[in-house]
Amino acid sequence: MAVVAGLGPRLDRERFQWSSLAMLTPALALLGLLFVFPVLYAGYLGFTNLALVGARSRDYSFTGLDNVVRMLGDYVFVKSAWLTLIFVVGSAIVGQSVLGMALALLLRNAVVPIRLIVGSIVIVAWVLPEITVALVWYAFSQAGGTLSILLRHSDTNFLVVVPMLIVSLANLWRNVAFSMLVFSAGLRNLPTEVLEAAEVEGASVWRRYRQVILPLLKPTILTNLLLVTILNLSEFTLIYAMTQGGPGIETMTLPLYVYQEAFVFHQLGYGTAISLVLVLIGAVFSLLFVRAARSQA
Amino acid sequence: MWSVIVASLPALLVACGSGNTPTATTDDMTGSITVAYSTTYVFDSDDTSVIWWNKVKSEFESAYPKAKLVLQGFNGTDVDLVNKVALEYKNPSTTPDVFMLPSGYVGQWVGSDYLLPLDSFVNDSNKAPFWSSFPKVIQDESKINGKVYAVNTGENNTAIYYNNAMLTKAGITVPWQPKTWDDILTAAKAVKASNQAGVIPLWVGAGTSAGAGGVLQGAANLVYGSSTPTIFDYNTKKWVVDSPGLRQVMDFYRSVYSQHLGASTSDLFSPKAVGRPVVLLKDHQLAIAVGSNWFADAWTEQNRHWANAAQEASAVPLPTSTGQAPGSASTLGGWAVGISKVTKHPELSWGLLKIMESDDNQTYIANRAGFVPPSQKVAKSDGFLSFAPPFNKAFGDALPNSKLVPSEQEGYPAWVQGIGQATGQIATDPNTSVDAAIKILHDAVANQVGADKVETLH
């Protein structure tokens, strides 16, 4: 068949074909049904007094800003939000990213066998099921556990003395592989000419890192921050398996508090409202990272 | 081996059941009903859970040859069971006809208008031959606004277990019968002073990790044994968060943990804390424990076998704080069976309930799940008393002074959380003052149910 020039649509302009709508309909319908509707419905439930069982499981009503007002006066919520911030900033943003970067840089310069062995060990921690990690760290931090023996305080239960630090460390231990992998990939893709040029010019290691590698890696770093923030904000299994939010409410981060309100106290409406706050916090962080990435471009 | 037994059970039971000829009406009843229950939380071992439910199923299907029973077992804790089944009840098409639930949740299920009143069944001695042998406290357990909504299948209550040899070594005469809380502390101190290697003097549950079960077999018993034995004030409809009795309880905890008489936080706050004293007693690492009646069944051969439990350990009622009347105290909490309001087969559902409550099935579940059977006839029968001697008798004797916890009230999980946090704080830091512990309880409950729903008793 001969190709006739000039008869097709112009390829240099944006085109809209009405038939594409029909093609998109199934996907849009599924997204609407399985994503948009549940999110909006959850948004609505967050402003009701719905309960899991009891009279208000059937006769619940829209209660306006009651849940928000309650949240502001709820000392557990305030503490919980604060703990979540500590967990995400301390364990994820600072700990995981800094350690992940350090590992990626060190492994980049290491000889192949060491790189393989260390890399594998770090990744094994990441591959382990969360519940296993929780058990390992639970045993590690108990009185008579390895940590207490190493620190020569064998009667001290570190999960009770410094609970937030221990769950943060456990989380860091497990998730550092993720950041390490992201950074390693980023480092491998850096243009070698630039690095070599800097080296030839006599720039010190620190200077090369700060003024060449870091700026070039910025998109990777931001992507990593965005992902680890989102992943860690909703962390539940590890903390719940280790402490169930205790002792007292010392490790009650927002996802655990949502669970407690919704499924222990049966306050589905209030629990949903708290989970909306969690979504909001995630959205704010994401927005910050996306803006930072855009200013870079 | 279990599978062989399980597989042969239906045949056996059909053979056994042929003596009880089903009446013409049951013969003709058709339909399929579903029963929801916990596979992992009620029985001492999952094997026995399977055996009991298969026995019930085959008895049901031979009594109602044209009907079918669907077993819907759930894994996890009591909280998991209630949450999953609560979601099923949101829609009539997924609602199980029959539900075996912790008796404390019956009130909330009735609040949701989910359950069928059972008065017409329990008041008919042909339909409920077992009902007249239930003591009034158990008949009334699931009575709400004058109507019965569920029938109990077994109760748990609390007493003190102790190791005979450890107390003897500490200079305490056995059999030991403490008359006050001071007697308990004195014995625990004597055990500590006698330097028995690796022995924890006293277990009294603290902290939040064991949830409602931990409080039921721990702190709540002390509240009921205190000078103000009230958790929920039914007159004012408020939660009691401060009272002379609660202060006695906090002071008792302070004495235990400040003198290092209690277990470590590794044991107390373990996710397995509910069962820790069972293991510690069996392993000869614990002298005295405030514990539940099911411990004794957990030491039988099928479970954590402690062959000499009957010779080595004893059980006595938990005394009141200063020996005031009635002399002993315990919580009471059990499991009950209700029928859904939307069931299409109420008669068949009742038929299942009647089979679950037969003397034989009550005995089996009481022995394997660690219950005091609701029927006094079964509770006094050889099949129950001789199963785990001599402990079952002590708990049966403690039953008259046992009191229900107000778990049908909506704020109960918050009170559980509050008392767990307060006692847990004392176990963590015995320097915590009574005032500070009371404040933790007050704040946790008031924060959840509202400051206008808590009160101080004087």
Protein model, in words:
- The complex is a heterodimer of chains A (297) and B (458).
- Chain A is an all-alpha fold and 297 residues long.
- Chain A has a single domain, classed as MetI-like fold, CATH 1.10.3720.10.
- Chain A is 73% helix and 0% strand.
- Chain A starts with 17 loop residues before the first helix and ends with a helix.
- The model of chain A has no long low-confidence stretch (mean pLDDT 89).
- Chain B has 2 domains: 11-156 and 333-404, D-Maltodextrin-Binding Protein, domain 2 (3-Layer(aba) Sandwich); 157-330 and 408-456, Periplasmic binding protein-like II (D-Maltodextrin-Binding Protein, domain 2), CATH 3.40.190.10.
- Chain B has 23 helices and 14 strands.
- With 458 residues, chain B is α/β, with parallel strands linked by helices.
- Chain A binds chain B through residues 51-55, 57-58, 74-76, 142-144, 155, 157, 159-160, 241, 243-249, 260, 263-266, and chain B through 79, 82-83, 86-87, 89-90, 105, 108-109, 111-114, 207-209, 211, 264-266, 269, 271, 410, 413-414, 417, 421, 424-425, 428, 440, 443-444, 447-448.
